Amino acid sequence: MVITIVAALVPSLAAAKDSGGAPTVQVTTTGSVAHEPNRVRLLLSVETFASRAEDAARENATRMKAVYKGLYRLGLTRNMIQTVSYSLDPRFDHSKRQSPEPVGYSARNRLQVTLDSLALVGKLIDTAIASGANRATELQFELKDSDEARLGALRAAMTRARAHARALAEAAGKRLGSPINIVTTPGGPVPRMAKVQSMRSFDETPIEGGAVHTSATVTFLLK
Description:
The protein has three helices and eleven strands. It is α+β, with helices and mostly antiparallel strands. It has two domains: 2-36 and 145-190 and 212-222, no CATH class; 39-142, Protein of unknown function (DUF541), domain 2 (Alpha-Beta Plaits). The strands form two sheets. Strands 1, 2, 3, 8, 9 and 11 form a six-stranded antiparallel beta sheet that branches. Helix 1 packs antiparallel against helix 2.
């Protein structure tokens, strides 16, 4: 785990009514932690076109079945694959000045694959395309345990807040007392999105997960 502290510091040293007129110190800081992702989601699509609706749907079903078989051969299970959407729409020729004329039908079947092994992503993309998928989009890197990442960001923010509060109190010639109030701003891991550009070749499509950043903001009020 790599910890990055980002300080958004708003310090103050003032007399507060709720502390009986005693001086208080308030700081606001943001802590951020970076983790290597251990979960990835990928959208795959099969798109087909034919002059008749039933032909477009039939070809789409045939190719999608082949995609499923290819994914199962990689060791994926049914709970790792989810259909996201299916559509069958007419296509029109808009080049003529008169009303558009139907020229055929387009079928699109989209599914989402969830993997807990980044090492398989490149091979998964290549296998899906070789099996019949013709679109791979919205590659998203995530964390399986987002709660632990949030806790790490909170700890980082609190460490920074205490350090700045102590510095303010010492500069004012005061001793830092007990916390009066601690407020946190909701935060969490921000999934990293990546574009997918895959071409069939003898080499596996290279994929790098980078880092998923999680941040938390703390406002710390002390005597």
